[in-house]
Amino acid sequence: MTEKYAAETLMQSRKDRDEHVRANPRHWLALAGLFMLKEGDNSFGSADANKIVLPGFPHPYSGCLHLEDGQVSLTESAEGVLLNRQPAEPHFLKADVDGDPDLVEAGPIHLMIIRRGGNTMLRAWDVDAQALKEFKGFKYFPVNPDYCFKAKFMPYNPPKTFTVTDVIGSQHESSLLGEVHFNLNGKNLALQIEDADDEGLISFVDETRKDLTYPGGRFLTLPKPLEDTIMLDFNAALNWPCAYTAWATCPLPPKENFLPVRIEAGEMRYHE
């Protein structure tokens, strides 16, 4: 990768990320809540008497979700509430992990069922969120070619299974493909690489978490297949969604991926 190519490619990807926010009203910045559903009825609306309350709901009582044995159904809905862009009727709802999840729209509040570590939850967006209106772009360190270099991939044979814990305490099992070894600022370092379907995933934190980057860590993705020598580019490091909202369910980096150096490359803190 040449210095010019790296800068041009990264700057374009950063512009594309900004444009995606402006074109996507259900971005992480628009999240309005994350609610743990309880067995039985879970009413939602703007009135305090509901189990799920948000001021953006168009009616004091906007509808009801029923949870039974992990399955959620929309049992009631107020006038104007939509299910997959059509007038809502009673219906079982698919969650995000099921693929092609159902979407409930109640005015500016959009709702989706998600499952994390055996928990069934309701994710809510407010497509009129002030955070979307005030968005001026993500923040990054200037592109620095010194943080783009070749590194040695050392695979685990066979891959190792490990437990991923997220910020809300949910856990799931995943697989580690191996480690990437490199030298930075005179220190020999290593990072574990998680198997993320068609990519390798590195979730890490470094010393800049104390002042310039999101304390919960950042991530890099690597294209598969992973060769013996790979290009490690920290300029491409991005924040997990939890850097923008309290309502995301981001994984915590493994303790093995805490780097005792400053990585002044990639995305910076969104909130001061």
Protein topology:
Layout: H1 3-23, E1 31-36, E2 40-45, E3 52-53, E4 63-68, E5 71-77, E6 82-83, E7 86-87, E8 91-93, E9 104-106, E10 109-116, E11 119-126, H2 130-133, E12 148-165, E13 171-184, E14 187-196, E15 199-204, E16 218-223, E17 229-233, E18 238-239
How many runs of DSSP E, i.e. beta strands? 18
Give the number of domains.
Answer: 2
H/E element order? HEEEEEEEEEEEHEEEEEEE
**Percent range for β-strand residues:** 35-45%
Shape: elongated
Determine the structural class based on helices, strands and strand pairing.
mainly beta
Q: Calculate Rg over CA atoms.
A: 21 Å
- Order of strands across the biggest sheet? 17-12-13-14-15-16-18
Number of helices: 2
Helix content: under 10%
Distance between the termini: 33 Å
How would a textbook summarize the main sheet? Answer: 7 strands, antiparallel
Average of pLDDT: 96
Which regions contain 5 or more consecutive residues with pLDDT less than 50? none
Could you characterize the architecture of this molecule?
9% of the residues lie in helices and 42% in strands. With 272 residues, the chain is mostly beta strands. It has 2 domains: 24-133, Tumour Suppressor Smad4 (Sandwich), CATH 2.60.200; 138-257, no CATH class. It is elongated. 30% of the residues are buried.
Features of this protein?
272 residues; mainly beta; Tumour Suppressor Smad4; 2 helices; 18 strands; elongated
Question: What can be said about this structure in brief?
Answer:
With 272 residues, the protein is mainly beta. The chain has two domains: 24-133, Tumour Suppressor Smad4 (Sandwich), CATH 2.60.200.20; 138-257, no CATH class. 9% of the residues lie in helices and 42% in strands.
